[in-house]
Design goal:
Helix content is 39%, strand content 15%. It is of the alpha/beta class. The protein has two domains: 5-158 and 298-330, 3-Layer(aba) Sandwich (Rossmann fold), CATH 3.40.50; 160-295, Response regulator (Rossmann fold). It has a six-stranded parallel sheet with strand order 2-1-3-4-5-11, with helices on both faces.
């Protein structure tokens, strides 16, 4: 996927729960006249686009074995290239925990100013990240969270629960618009043992329950096209009729769509997850069952590099009143449909 890094920054959405009210202008609530110190206008970071001191950012992520992770690394490199004052020291992606630990230690020995890390296993990398923090090197923890906030200066990642909520909310809205009273709603989850899958499924179930609906046939895949095709074929064989289907992951969605095509099924609508360019193109064409996808965008890697640069230069976020980078930032899982897909094509990633 190729994208303009500045567009990625502009389109990046922050979860309201992560920001709080600090970014709002504080009004005067008494009869006393306002003075220069009573109103906190959002301008804490100054002009962040101006070049500052050079910052060396270390970057470590898992192996690019599917589209989303590949886009994470690609976005990080593209964002670093957009800054004249950033030098990126990126390791080769690995799914071997011990190798990733060794790579992080090597980055520290090379003298990085800030470390951005998407751990293959957050729990297993926690102690290593905390050691980096103890050396006064700020760590930005990307997506898969460490076990303790002591291991990171800032966490940035997606909202898995909200992803499920928004998928369920969209499906419920469509069912009510079609006048379907008791819809059969299927679910193709990811790896059930992962907390992120559990959170997505809970959000989906909760949103449907709020609308008076429930989850019907459900299978779990492994975030791959092969597993998506196999498990969806099993689901379709057991469900003679569906009204809607949510697939958690657009990478495995390639297989999900293949199974649907092979079965010759078209009586239902489908919602995807994460926001791949392939699924966005299908949504725009509007000639298959997929009608929407809920974002879990790898553009978060671009923002992580931007934040690392600011940390290295002791700057805050320009549009925030606070002088410091937030400690916790959650992206928002917007629902991409035919009506708004053109606004999100720039962050669609290649599956």
């Amino acid at each position: 996927m190729s994208q303009d890094p500045s567009l990625a920054r502009r389109r990046f959405l922050l979860g309201a729960s992560a920001l709080g009210a600090g970014a709002l202008v504080v009004g005067c609530t008494s009869n006393e006249p306002a003075n220069a110190n009573s109103n906190q206008v959002a301008a804490g970071g100054g002009d962040n686009d101006q070049p500052g001191k050079e910052v060396t950012i270390g970057f470590s992520a898992p192996a690019a074995d599917h589209g989303w992770i590949a886009a994470i690394t690609k976005n990080a490199k593209a964002q670093a290239d957009a800054f004249k004052d950033v030098k990126l020291n990126a390791t080769e992606g690995t799914n071997d925990v011990n190798q990733q630990i060794a790579q992080v230690e090597s980055l520290v020995n090379d003298g990085v100013d800030v470390l951005v890390i998407l751990p293959f296993d957050g729990k297993a990398l926690t102690a290593t990240a905390q050691e980096v923090m103890d050396k006064d090197i700020p760590v930005i923890n990307l997506d898969r969270v460490f076990d303790t906030p002591l291991a990171y200066r800032t966490w940035i990642g997606g909202d898995n629960y909200r992803m499920g909520v928004n998928a369920g909310g969209y499906i419920a809205e469509q069912m009510k618009a079609k006048g379907v009273a008791n819809p059969v709603i299927g679910e193709v989850a990811g790896i059930d043992s992962l907390p992120l899958t559990q959170e997505r499924s809970k959000g989906f179930k909760d949103a449907l329950a709020k609308a008076g609906f429930k989850v019907g046939p459900r299978v779990a895949a492994e975030f791959t096209a092969e597993s998506g095709e196999k498990q969806t074929a099993n689901l379709l064989q057991g469900a003679s009729k569906l009204d809607a289907l949510w697939n958690h992951d657009d990478d495995q969605g390639i297989g999900v769509m293949a199974a649907i095509d092979s079965a010759g099924r078209s009586e239902f609508i489908m919602v995807g997850g994460a926001g791949s360019r392939d699924m966005m193109d299908r949504i725009k064409a509007d000639n298959t069952v997929i009608k929407a996808t809920v974002l879990y965008s790898p553009s978060m890697a671009s923002t992580a590099i931007s934040l690392a640069r600011l940390l290295g230069q002791n700057k805050g976020v320009a549009d925030f009143a606070e002088h410091e980078i937030p400690a916790f930032i959650t992206t928002y899982s917007a629902v991409v449909t035919k009506e708004n897909v053109d606004s999100y094509l720039d962050i669609g990633f290649a599956s």
